[in-house]
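subagent[fold] <- orchestrator: predict structure for attached chain, return tokens only, no commentary.
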Amino acid sequence: MLDDLDRRILRQYQADPEASSAELADRCGTTAATIWRRLERMREAGLLQGVEAVIDWQALGYAIEVSLRVSLDKTVPRAYDEFLVAARLVPEVLEIQTFLGRVDVRLSVIARDLAHYQVLYRDRILTLPHIADIETLMHIARVKSDEALPL
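subagent[fold] -> orchestrator:
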């Protein structure tokens, strides 16, 4: 269970994951050794799942983001598994989410431009197995994108 110090540490850490243990200690009113031990304990418990580099894909020449809502052929026993294995192999698919309901899977896809997206859609997306229906939503603007939790 998390105590107040753990929550303070997590608030500061998610606000500035590059901060040193000493900096976090100053902000949390404790020692660097305590910060290090508590962060290690949270990593071992699976609460902290790593620190990752966030790369601006637009700076690398990708200008289009599309969300695809996919319904799968549920008469095929392994439709989900086979679809997910194949979708993971498409490098432009950044995120895959599964759902209960009319939509089974959502893919977040990037492309350099509309011509690239058209080729990607025709040659890679539509050839994924067991698609019964697909709906395309063109991304216009990111209004909020925040991984920070209310601690």
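orchestrator: received. Logging for downstream: Residues 4 and 101 are 39 Å apart (CA to CA). Strands lie at 64-72, 93-98, 105-111, 131-138.
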